[in-house]
Amino acid sequence: MALAARLLRRALSSASDGRRRRRAWEASLSPLERLKRLLPPEEAAAVERYAEPRSSASPQAPAEEKMAVAAPSAAPTAAPSSQGSPEKKMAARPIPLRAGELALAELRRKHNATLKLLCRLEAGAVLNSHGGLLPHRDIIGQLPGQLLRTSAGARLLLRRPSLDEYVLLMPRGPTIAYPKDISAMLMMMDVHPGDVVLESGSGSGALSLFLSRAVGPKGRVISYEIRDDHHNLAKKNYRHWRTTWKKGHTEEWPDNVDFVLKDISRAAEDMKSLTFDAIVLDMLNPQSALSVVHPSLKEGGVCAVYLANITQVIDLLDRIRTCRLPFACENIIEVTHRNWLVLPAKIKNCKSSQRVETQEDIEEDPQQKECDEIQTRDQIVLNEGEGHESFPDDAETYCSAPYVARPSHWQDAHSAFLTKLRKFRPPLS
Known about the structure:
Blueprint lengths: L1 H26 L3 H8 L2 H16 L6 H19 L3 H6 L11 E7 L5 E7 L5 E4 L2 E4 H4 L6 E4 L5 E5 L3 H7 L9 H11 L6 E5 L5 H10 L4 E6 L2 H21 L8 E5 L6 H4 L4 E6 L5 H7 L3 E11 L2 H13 L4 E7 L6 E5 L14 H5 L2 H14 L4 H4 L15 E5 L9 E7 L6
Helix pairs in contact: 2-3, 8-9
């Protein structure tokens, strides 16, 4: 009996301890947890989803949850205080085309050709193209990238020209340095914002414009030209680009080019007080200027030479060797681009050849299917006239079709040889 009594007391005491432990644990529950225990599972889940944002911000929540909840609420208050220039620039709206600035009109023609027309917008003027007439008053006020119809029904894409397009379409005197060669020369010279660059041979001002953008507002470009007509044309093209840039953009184009009408071979006195980070020579006889400009080029700087013929490159290197000028020829390159034509194929009845597989095609004989594919492939021809006469209509329907890819008939020809000369410090004798 004594043993049974002891076991009963031990069981009762453990049960009472368990009840106490449960009561202590239940006392720490939040009212929401107690409510969810009394509801069916479906209603309890709905109550939890409804009360989740409120419960995460309660004092019972851990510190990590409080920080996570406080972070989104703090973001809107911090945004107005950080109204810097990057935010304003990102939020800037596109500027409509205005009177007085340059506009570029694109007209699609046959054989994948695009006719580009550059015009200065005036209220009473008319754009005359092969596709018809378009008054300038219909262009002014439109956002760039709009498609407008001419009097003949052709569609023109109106937008602002890029720098390389302006260079190719602006008035020319001498032959310009083409953008594909200019980009290679800028990489040769490793031009940075803030650099001071010497240019010999302003020409029509194409290279001066790219150098002006490369050195930025804190840099400087000094451009020498021996001919008066080329000097005036380069200044005019540069001024026109700065004017149209100001009308179509929030910031101004830097006024950082000094055009000098003078023979570079006679400018030794001007070079004594100057130090250049890079030099570019675009002239018939660059070897006559090397002896004048090399003392002003910094040690390790690059002199890029733009020459049309390989015999001119030979004469240049021979003068450097015979006169023992401190230049090392690092490389001579010719920049070539290969244009490709990628168009949907057409069959001879001018219908698109669709890639549609039916159940009959899947179940047919493989050998017969291969013969049919070869016969169909022979029928596919490239109909460039219909596919690229104009921009696509919104009402046109599109389907999967085979494509024809081949090099274009029109390829960019040779333009120049680019010679990279690196200045070094000669050893002491």
